[in-house]
Amino acid sequence: MTRLSVNINKVALLRNSRGSNLPNLIKVARDCESFGAEGITVHPRPDERHVRYADIAPLRSICTTEFNIEGYPNEKFLNLVLANPPVQCTLVPDDPDQLTSDHGWDTITHESFLSSTISRLQAAGIRVSIFMDPVDRLIEGAKRVGADRIEFYTGPYAEQYKENREQACAPYIAAAHLANGLGLGINAGHDLNLENLSYFKNNIPRLLEVSIGHALISDALYFGLKNTIQMYLRQLQ
Ligand code: PXP
Fold this sequence. Notes:
Layout: E1 3-7, H1 9-16, H2 25-34, E2 39-42, H3 53-62, E3 66-71, H4 75-83, E4 88-91, H5 111-123, E5 127-132, H6 136-144, E6 149-153, H7 155-161, H8 165-182, E7 185-189, H9 197-203, E8 207-212, H10 214-223, H11 225-235
Parallel strand pairs: 1-2, 1-8, 2-3, 3-4, 4-5, 5-6, 6-7, 7-8
Bound molecules: pyridoxine-5'-phosphate.
The site of pyridoxine-5'-phosphate has 19 residues, from strand 8 and helix 10.
């Protein structure tokens, strides 16, 4: 079974654009869950252009599915996560002003930083996933630093999907076999959409979770949030 976690950053972006509380992020998170989402993902960035730090505590308190906080683990982020422990924290090697995440961790260069950060979070009972490219030696590094799961950065898959989906998926399939063999759980996210999701899901052995924001929220403009979530869930069956 692959869980669908809805990333609600784009909803917060819309709210922030007018300085009011519309759309109401808490209501949207609750509704996503009641429409079938199996998780809520947020990515508080340092400039707070999407989800704000102040959103995290109320969201965590209402979330009844899997709450996933993702981001670059600076001290401010770690304090936020430790004060509001989610089920899962996904560590992403983002620069502070990055438009969106566009690469995974170099688990060899950052081995000691990742090891100590992951142990801190795990000591608080938080499952830790790290954002990764499908590269064997880096995935072996993810095991060494103690990650529970990896989240594949699927941007390159999505980009190549239209030209050659077999080729686009091949590195992820190989990396998934390696990760499964090492006992690492597998999540995936970035640029997944109604067109490319089911092929990825059907080809990646034991894909535990996808987190999807941009395309899902964009689709909701046309189909409505409830229908859209159901459509994504169908792709995952
Ligand atoms: N995973 C990570 C680590 C991300 O940073 C993002 C984007 O915030 C996503 C998944 C979701 O990507 P998308 O918005 O393209 O669905």
